[in-house]
Queue: 3 jobs
Job 1
Amino acid sequence: MTDVAYIPEANFNLFSITRRLRQGFKLGGDKNSILLEKSGKNIVFDIVIPTPKGAIYCAYLKRKNVEVASASKANKLISVNLAHQIFGHGDEASTRKTAKALGFELNRGTMKPCVSCTAAKAKQKNLSSHGEHVLSTEINGRAFLDLSTVKPPSHLNVRVNKPHWRIIVDERTQLKVSDFFETKNVMVEPTCELFYKWKEAGMPVKIVRMDGAGENITLKKRIDSVDWKLSIDYEITARNTPQ
């Protein structure tokens, strides 16, 4: 049969008997089955499902193995790159063996690099044990600043009033200064005040290393503003660093 609609996920597919009659089939049958016949080929609907007012006649159609084996060679001629994708992204040798076992013929040519395989095999860059970073030799010569959000386990049902943790670390002494804030942006003014206090004490911060988050950019603008004028340089880290 040709020109049919097949839905593999459906329990049943509808069959139009009137369409087949127009195609030259002859209709017959009795209470046990409905028979369509054409050129010596029969389609028998012998699965009877009773309904309150009648019955539905069904048929179970199964493709014969000889029909699968008779598929045209053109439909089984594919490229080695396509075979590599549909057969599990193996190496070229295993891809060719799999294709041969399944009856596929591959076009000539070698397998090209696969973007998906390249991404899967990618790894982080190995870091040198001796970096080029020069450690600060004076107090507050370089300060590291970062924020983290503290969240209690959900099952405790605890509310944290100031969940945003800002920590500043002096590279020279490893002194850590921690504070907690209601929102990330709230930390901007207190941080400026802290840096100003250190400057007045003769320990000005010369370099601040931080990421490019929005609250840090706001902090940078306030530090450079006419209100503070702290004359600090910045080292903005990129995402996924140091890798």
Note: The mean pLDDT is 86.
Job 2
Amino acid sequence: MESLAAKKSGSLLAIDADPNSNLPELLGLKSSKTVVGMIDEISKNMGSIPQGMTKDRYIEMKMQQDGVAEEDRFDLLAMGRPEGPGCYCYVNNLLRGIVAKITKNYDFVVIDNAAGMEHISRRTERVVDKLVLVSDFSVFGVRSASNIYQLAKDLNIKIGGAYLILNKLTGPADSLAGEIRDSGLSLAGTIPYENDLGCLSLANRPIFELKSEQVKSAVDDILKNLMRG
């Protein structure tokens, strides 16, 4: 996000589609608006819905008006977490509709999904220019990324390109060459293990404050590879 925003290549929207939302904090933002929060607020005040308008249409309208937090270098839309027990089906369906409409206004849209297959299986995004899967430095991590990619293909999600990033690298990436080749994913790059990242997390500081030139250089290289792909 930082590298893409810094290049000022066009308008940028970040979407935190993880119910366990932490992207705003990682980016140093304090935005409290979420898709779920607005749904809950409207559900508690049904009288606010204009006569003749359905709840879904009103929620969609409010999200387009008030749901996107506008920042200096990019805008942000966060999914959020429902209060108490409940299914995410309705929220995911709503998010899919909102994403389809809002993203038309941006040159770049980066969607941070929850780890795992849920958002793929629910087809929250049906057209993906670049599917980027992040794995730790392990055989099982690469195989998990491969499984997610295969699921996306099985569900006929339109993918322009599929890429793998190896994170927390502590050895030569060549040791996983066979697994990467079998995954069908293109290796966009690697990010070395950096203790400073853990320190930032413990101090509750945004990722923008990372000082490691090695990690910054690795991320810049990955972005260049993705933009070329």
Note: The mean pLDDT is 84.
Job 3
Amino acid sequence: MGWQKVLNEYLFKGDERSEDMLIRMFAGKSLVDFSYFNSLLSFYSNLKYHVMPSYYRYSSPLLGFLHPIIQLMYGIEWEQPAIVAMGLAQAAVHEDNMKKFLITAEDAAKSSSTPMPQIASLLEEVATDNKLSTAARMSDGNKVRDGVFARAFDEMIRVAAKVKVEPEELEERTVEMYNTAVYEAASAAIHPGKEPRFDFFLM
């Protein structure tokens, strides 16, 4: 079929199956067992050049937040069918534990006619909301699931519902998103007296 037609059929068609896959693209917990993880480590260790990401050496196979969509975006950007397939495969073995949030936020966004504000203002809104900004704790196994969703779900929906991009503004909003991500990452990486470091997930 070609990877473009595969994505239109299994991810963007809008039926129950494709909606389920789209939600799993953002999942935070994998259903795979340690045999998959071990085979992944073996694959990287047998390559001629050492390219294994450092986090694979120290991460649990159950921690895969956003990994399916990250792989998919790499595959699309570089037009690599095998990487697109890997992203779809990762989504297929992940739980749909973002389903309630994504659907609730989407429904809330559809019910509002207010244009989307600047992305940076949404970050500031989260930072100035005491319940939201303190919802995640170091003791949480998953800061999103056990922190934000458990302690400030309605508040997060209020902010997420403001995110809606019209087709004609897609390119502009994509540039804005990129710039804001760099701004946010820099604010987290720079601290007086410390050497600036950007962790991989801030990409």
Note: Residues 54-62 have pLDDT under 50 and may be disordered.
